[in-house]
């Protein structure tokens, strides 16, 4: 966590791209390393990850995670599912609301299909990057409950990376402490003293579109040879 870049509680990023440039400076020690791969969690994590990958000269890919919404209250996460089928459940919410195993399976099946659709949409036939033995920097535009990032980290274990680094522009102190124990390295630019939502750390928090994700992935592929050289 950096105290020199953001010292006041009301400091905000202009947008996700600026947040990515801030994180890139905090990840400078990974610049030019051939074992580094940057993964953005779509959609909002991809513009952040693009700036990091560009600055570090590293390849960029997506790693998909979908929230499992409580039936009838889909904005409330009862868990998340990630590429490869890894599921993380919020047992507290499930128990408190009495959510059935059938409802959980139905949500996981539905969101699993959406994961497949989005992978096809974003990669457009390109294979996923090989993560075996790599240092993987996993990027989102912020942590709130952390369910999506937890699912991503659990799913990533199946790919046998040598090291996982979580990089986010903003997170509450509680999530910062949790993820500092869950990953090899956590890089977070700001931890607001009163955290209500990820968007409070941005002046422009416009929703990232599927087309923007596709465009950034294509741009990363085109620009990397020149950056790497």
In short:
The chain has helices spanning 16-26, 45-56, 91-97, 101-123, 147-156, 173-182, 210-228, and strands at 36-40, 60-62, 65-70, 73-82, 87-89, 135-139, 163-170, 185-190.
Describe this structure as you would to a colleague.
The chain is of the alpha/beta class. It has a domain of 148 residues: Rossmann fold. It has 7 helices and 8 strands; from the N terminus they run αβαββββααβαβαβα. α6 links the parallel β7 and β8. α2 runs parallel beside α7 and α4 packs across α7. The longest helix has 23 residues. The N terminus is likely disordered.
Question: Keywords, please?
Answer:
five-stranded parallel sheet, Rossmann fold, 20% strand, alpha/beta
The largest sheet is: 5 strands, parallel
Q: Portion of residues in helices?
A: 40-55%
What is the C-level CATH assignment of the domain at 16-64 and 130-228?
Alpha Beta
Secondary structure category: alpha/beta
How many strand segments?
A: 8
What is the oligomeric state here? Answer: single chain
Strands ordered across the widest β-sheet: 2-1-6-7-8
Helix/strand order: HEHEEEEHHEHEHEH
């Amino acid at each position: 966590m950096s105290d020199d870049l953001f010292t006041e509680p009301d400091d905000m990023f202009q947008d996700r791209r600026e947040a990515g440039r801030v994180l890139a400076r905090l990840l400078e020690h990974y610049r030019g390393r051939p074992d580094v791969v940057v993964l953005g969690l779509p959609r909002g994590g991809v513009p952040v990850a693009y700036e990091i990958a560009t600055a570090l000269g590293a390849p960029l890919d997506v790693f998909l995670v979908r929230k499992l919404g409580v039936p009838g209250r889909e904005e409330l996460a009862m868990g998340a599912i990630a590429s490869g089928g890894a599921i993380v459940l919020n047992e507290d919410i499930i128990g408190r609301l009495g959510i059935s195993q059938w409802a959980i399976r139905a949500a996981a099946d539905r969101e699993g299909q959406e994961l497949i659709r989005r992978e096809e949409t974003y990669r457009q036939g390109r294979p996923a990057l090989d993560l075996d033995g790599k240092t993987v920097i996993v990027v989102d535009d912020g942590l709130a409950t952390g369910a999506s990032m937890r699912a991503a980290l659990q799913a990533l274990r199946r790919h046998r990376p040598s090291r996982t680094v979580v990089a986010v522009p903003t997170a509450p102190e509680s999530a910062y402490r949790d993820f500092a124990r869950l990953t090899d390295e956590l890089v977070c630019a700001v931890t607001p003293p009163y955290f209500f939502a990820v968007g409070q750390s941005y002046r422009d928090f416009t929703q990232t579109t599927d087309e923007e994700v596709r465009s950034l992935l294509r741009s990363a592929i085109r620009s990397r040879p020149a950056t790497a050289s």
